[in-house]
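Put briefly, the fold is written as integer tokens. One such record reads:
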Amino acid sequence: MFQQQLGEETPLLPPLPQQNTARTPLPWHQFSIILFLQLAEPLTSQVIAPFAPQLIRDIGITNGDETSVGYYVGLMYSLFFATQALTVLHWSRISDHIGRKPVILTGLFGLSISMYCFGLSRTFWGLVLSRALNGALNGNVGVIKSMMVDITDSTNLAQAYAFMPLAWSTGGTIGPLVGGLLSRPVEQFPDVFGHSQFLKNYPYFLACAVPATFSALAWVVTFLFLRETVHTRVTLGHLLRGKYHEDMTPGPVTPTGSTESLSTEDTAQGANADDSKPLPLRSLLIPKVIIAAGNYAALSLLDIAFRDVQPLFFATPLELGGLGLDPPRIGNILAIYGVINGLFQIFFFADLHDRFGSKTIYSVAMAVGIPMIITFPILNTVAKVQGLSLVVWAIVGLQLALSMILNLAYSCVFIYIAAASPNQASFGATNGIAQLGVSIVRAIGPASATSAFSLSIKNPHHAWIIYYYMIALVCIGIFASMFLPRQLWKSQR
């Protein structure tokens, strides 16, 4: 039959029978806790977006040079991902051995402390150290994805991933609103905060304290209510002493809230490995893991460049190539986008995935990156002629709509990463490898994109450099997508 004739690109889920397989209900109690925990990272990262350019101006690192603001904003963003790249793989691999929960607790602690420190920083190097601490202690991105695979099966994984943008969109909605409304509160709300000398000295502390406190609350929720999903574990002491190879014995693996766990076919070198034991790193560096991780990195490089350039473009004066919007208005735009994007992903991704498959959706999503980027120079040109007219806001809406389509690619690539894992016990390490690549490109992406943006506005003859750069990133993503199989890798039964 058809399934028996397929080779290395045999689908993770057999294509014809899968159409008639009912979805297993999601384990909503644990799943909702995971979604809640995911709010912490986008909230802490997006809260600074509306005021980051003004913060850089206030601390005086640019010495009044407006064209250098973008460079320092990008450098500040990049430091988080650079330090995360040094630790994220280790956190993910550790979670395969000692469990997901201890790693998530450590990450939430790091988010909370670092955001309080960020709000208290009055120098550029203080901001840098806060962001570095944030990245070094936070390995939750890959670990939470692994936990989501742990509690789902092959019938409801796409549905679960459709909800992932909900947390990021909600955080992306609340974060900019908080950052725009609560930054410089003495100036925005003089009747309420006008007598606070502390907030005069630290005008961005209140905005940073909100996500910091939320992360502390998420820590409490995790500690009290989140159930561990790694059932064969060792103590941290055994792991540090390298004794887990001798001491760990396979235990019963009972899927949490599902009837079937998603695991993928191993390569020849690990095909007979115990599914309950994490594989060594060298056994994970196989073609399908590298392909999935490479596409995730390419997508993230484009996305982080766009996310960092967009608020900079909105904040840059009209005569320098931007739109000249103030932080509250920028926050409102990003917040509206976050709400609509979250609803779009929830209500449409799972059905679109069932109809078209991961490869088609991913390829289309990457392709819309080109018109999405072209809207930047069109916006500036129209705004110079008409001001902030209805046409300008319509183009902003079009840009946000194209960005929502681009975000469909994330759920697709997460499914590819889950399918690429050699065995169930190595989901954490597989996600860690993928997240390592993403952290590296995200360390490069903000600084390179915002530096290109600064170069573009310094010299009118170089005005399109940033757009050429971002279009090149789209082309890299499209090229990488050609290596993805049309149907997912074969599943072990």
Q: What stands out?
A: The longest helix spans residues 327-367. The radius of gyration is 23 Å.
